[in-house]
Amino acid sequence: MVYHAARDRVHHLNQTAALVFELCNGRNAPDELARLMQQAWQLPAPPAEEVAACLAVLREEGLIR
Questions:
Q1: What is the rounded distance in angstroms from the CA atom of residue 5 to the CA atom of residue 10?
Q2: Of all helices (H) and strands (E), which one includes residue 55?
Q3: Global pTM value
Q4: Is 28 domain-assigned?
Q5: Is 39 part of a structural domain of the chain?
Q6: Each residue of 1-50: pLDDT tens digit?
Q7: CA–CA distances in Å: residue 35 to residues 1, 9, 11, 60
Q8: Per the structure, how many domains does the chain have?
Q9: Dihedral sign of CA atoms 31, 42, 59, 53 in order
Q10: With bands split at pLDDT 50, 70 and 90, how would you rate the model's confidence at 65?
Q11: Domain housing 25
């Protein structure tokens, strides 16, 4: 759960969005985020498309830049 004070909104993130949000530290590129998620969940391939979609929503909601 993330509270966005400027918008006075609470966001309930699913596991994927929560991990992407947590890994967004200003140093991890989208490809790196996908690679880290692949490792965390032992996926056969990095979920690059899913990460890109998640980043777009997080940006749209003002949770990341």
A1: 8
A2: helix 48-60
A3: 0.87
A4: yes
A5: yes
A6: 999 888 899 999 998 899 999 999 889 999 999 999 999 999 999 999 99
A7: 24, 30, 25, 23
A8: 1
A9: positive
A10: confident
A11: 14-60
4 belongs to a structural domain: no
Q: Which two tokens stand for residue 36?
A: 């880290």
Using CA atoms, how far apart are residues 32 and 24, in angstroms rounded to an integer? 10
Structure tokens at 38: 């692949």
Q: Is residue 34 part of a domain?
A: yes
- Measured CA to CA, the distance from residue 17 to residue 50 in angstroms comes to 10
User: Across the strands, what pairs with 3?
Assistant: 10
Specify whether the CB–CB gap between 33 and 23 falls below 8 A: yes
Which candidate, 35, 30, 38, places its Cα nearest to that of 54? 30
Burial class (CB in 10 A: 0-12, 13-18, 19+), 29: exposed
Q: Which residues pair with 11 in a beta bridge?
A: 2
